[in-house]
Amino acid sequence: MTDIDEQGRPEPPFAAGEVETLLGFLDFQRATFEWKCSGLDAAGLAKTVGASTMTLGGMLKHLAWVEECWFSQRLHLNEWQPLWRDVDWQAEPDWEWTSAADDSPEQLRTLWRETVARCRVLVDQALADGGLDRLTRWTFPDGRAVSLRWLLCHMIEEYARHNGHADLIREAVDGQTGE
Question: Which Pfam family name is an example for this entry (predicted)?
């Protein structure tokens, strides 16, 4: 049984196996990010802080891209989804960040939620096909691949880093604070 905190986030298990612990912390970080983006309109998702151009809307699209990149394309060598495949990344290396301003809040939230749901299935498939030691099908230029264990830790780090950004931006939008 998973405990849900006052923000609706699933608490990571206190005493569980490695897989359950890693997935629990990733889902907690995902839920923290979703909480920071919840209830905001287009202006809220477009808010910046200080000199940064980072927005919550841009983060929604960026994290959808990161999920797709690692859990679909690199872990399984799946074809890129059409949204990502059709981008000229050489001409616009920050496309996911900048193009978010053209998307509605619902489009951004739906993109992120659907990508996360698809990636959960892809992680389950990889767990069934080698467990945490399962290597990505994609390799770095030197031929090295990373394990699913490494990938889950990386994604926890990715979300934790951006959750810090999201905290600052959300406080600037409407004063909402909290872990």
Answer: MST
Write the pLDDT tens digit of every residue in 55-76. 999 999 999 999 999 999 999 9
Please measure the distance between the N-terminal and C-terminal CA atoms of the chain and give it in whole angstroms.
23
What long-range pairs does 41-48 form, CB within 8 A, spacing at least 24?
A: 41/105, 42/104, 42/105, 44/105, 44/173, 44/174, 45/100, 45/105, 45/108, 46/101, 47/169, 47/172, 47/173, 48/169
Q: Which of 158, 70, 68 is nearest to 111 (CA)?
A: 68
Q: 18, 132 in Cβ contact below 8 A?
A: yes
The yes or no reply on domain 19-174 and CATH 2.30.30.240 is no
Domain boundaries, the chain: 19-174
